[in-house]
Amino acid sequence: MRFCDVFNHYLTILNVSYPAFAQFAGMSVSSIRRYKNGESEPASDSEQLRKIADGIAGLAEERHIPLDAGEVFDELQRTLKNHLAIDYSAYAANLNMLLKQMDIRVTVLAKALSFDPSYISKILSGQRKPAHIDEFTQNVASFVSRNCADESQIRHLSALLGCDEAALENPRERCGAIVTWLGTNTEKNSDPISGFLDKMDAFCLDDFIRAIHFDDIKLPTVPFQFPGTKNYYGIQDMMESELDFMKATVVSKSMKDCILYSDMPMEEMAKDPEFPKKWMFGRAMMLKKGLRLHIIHDVNRPFHEMMLGLESYIPMYMTGQIAPYYLPVTQGSVFNHLLNVSGAAALEGNAIAGHQASGKYTLYKSKDDIQHFRMRAEQLLKKAEPLMDIYRSDRKAEFDAQTELLWTEGDRHVVNCSLPLFTIAPELLEQILRRVSLSEADKEQIRHYRAGYLSMAEKLLTVSKVTLVLPKLSEEQFAETPLNLALSELFIETDVPYRYEEYRAHLEQTCAFAQAFPNLALEFDVKPPFRNISYTVVANRHVIVSKNKYPAIHFIIHHRKMVQAFQNFIPPVDDPK
């Protein structure tokens, strides 16, 4: 027998409503309702259980019903199984993943559970453990079950929990599945942010260009012939329509920017092993031609799927020719849409969600049709928000202006793959520059950058708190993976390596600098996770991801779910002190 069954039995004996019982027992009505409905259970050794037992016994005494508080407590306690013997690191990782996938804000969850948001944040980061893990888990699961109940949310939840959607239709079963998943002591998903950063860290544009024979791509010159309009029906035709659109775009003389949007599910198309290769090759041809692509991504999907999709775009992002966006409102719950427009063609289509096989897609080539659909695409783009801003060397001036604004205020957490240039002594910098093969103009740029960077850092540290996570390497580690000066913000793509004694001297100078600024905290990692990537979380509003290796490139991320994910993704710090 379950707790709710025994509890409801006592309420029946006492002939009392659950709101009246809540008032008598000094508990919240919402808590008692959840216990009554089986949406939640108190921990077996909790104060809540004691209050319930005392409340039942107290009401029974008033109504001259022979019930003993101790016996009531024992009977209720027997229904509770303290089954969550928790591995807290796995628990915190899975709880993080659940909130990311279901787009639940910490502040909203904290309010629903009557906790301070900082307490929930500490649980998510592994700094705190819930006092009553069973009750906490039940309450989290109950909240998620109640607030993630539409068809789209259940689809996302089933993908995360690894169970059929049908098994999650009932709120009680949905709650139980979440409890079981959270308490299995196995980290079910590797962090999607880790995969995204790992791929970016290891990515080499030259290797990618060679792998897809990008330099050997010959843009076709024979006109792509099709009528003024061409209709496509079903999934296979939809894939053909995408390829035909790219062919028409590539062979035309137009260099107009392309606007591309689709919230069509990718599962069916991914079943065709050849289509992703052809699709990627088509995109590569568009980039080879020199077109700029404005891509409106569909982010209304499970978080790990969204991040995997973004991972696949990394090679194209690295060209600097793509501007990514997203729509801040939910799409695709009833209709799925596709709208691609270039200077030579327009592709438009739609399908009922879940029924792509009955969708219809039309490719247009006439001037009037292209003009019409470009107007619609531009209207759609105005409703979109930047997913991230991408800066390569050709946008250095814009990047400098943006980062200068971000350096005025705002607490930040910085994970560096090298040491910050603003802490290096001018004498040590000159020693390094004297022995490297850089032009005098580049050397002067580095000197000027260090001075400006130092000035901005000193001003920031008077008003904001900064945490720097830095690599702390032994001589053996350094010999295996030597570090370079951090010059990505200058877009200097020539390595400027430290010698070990120079690295140690700069590290000591960084520690000395931190002692002079109480708002600067240093953490040291003896096993840094990334060789070429640094990232900065700025005041819970933005994330700057910088790649130090060719191509030097920076991503300023704005999307709230991604910013939150970076906040929670703090690589393990192994401090040797």
Set out the fold topology:
Layout: H1 3-14, H2 18-25, H3 29-37, H4 47-62, H5 69-78, H6 88-101, H7 106-113, H8 117-125, H9 133-147, H10 151-161, H11 171-182, H12 192-202, H13 205-211, E1 229-233, H14 234-251, E2 258-262, H15 267-270, H16 275-289, E3 293-297, H17 303-317, E4 322-326, E5 335-341, E6 346-352, E7 360-364, H18 367-383, E8 385-386, E9 388-391, H19 396-406, E10 412-415, H20 426-434, H21 440-460, E11 466-471, H22 475-480, H23 500-515, E12 520-525, E13 533-538, E14 542-547, E15 553-557, H24 560-568
Parallel strand pairs: 2-3, 3-4, 10-11, 11-12
Antiparallel strand pairs: 1-7, 2-5, 4-8, 5-6, 6-7, 9-15, 10-13, 13-14, 14-15
Helix pairs in contact: 2-3, 4-5, 7-8, 9-11, 12-17, 14-16
Task: Tell me about this structure.
With 577 residues, the chain is of the alpha+beta class. The chain has 4 domains: 3-78, 434 Repressor (Amino-terminal Domain); 88-182, Orthogonal Bundle (434 Repressor (Amino-terminal Domain)), CATH 1.10.260; 209-386, Endonuclease, Chain A; 393-568, Endonuclease, Chain A (2-Layer Sandwich), CATH 3.30.870. 49% of the residues lie in helices and 14% in strands. It is built from 24 helices and 15 strands. It has helices spanning 3-14, 18-25, 29-37, 47-62, 69-78, 88-101, 106-113, 117-125, 133-147, 151-161, 171-182, 192-202, 205-211, 234-251, 267-270, 275-289, 303-317, 367-383, 396-406, 426-434, 440-460, 475-480, 500-515, 560-568; strands spanning 229-233, 258-262, 293-297, 322-326, 335-341, 346-352, 360-364, 385-386, 388-391, 412-415, 466-471, 520-525, 533-538, 542-547, 553-557. It has an 8-stranded mixed sheet with strand order 1-7-6-5-2-3-4-8, with helices on both faces. Helix 17 (303-317) links the parallel strand 3 and strand 4. The radius of gyration is 29 Å and the shape is flat. 35% of the residues are buried.
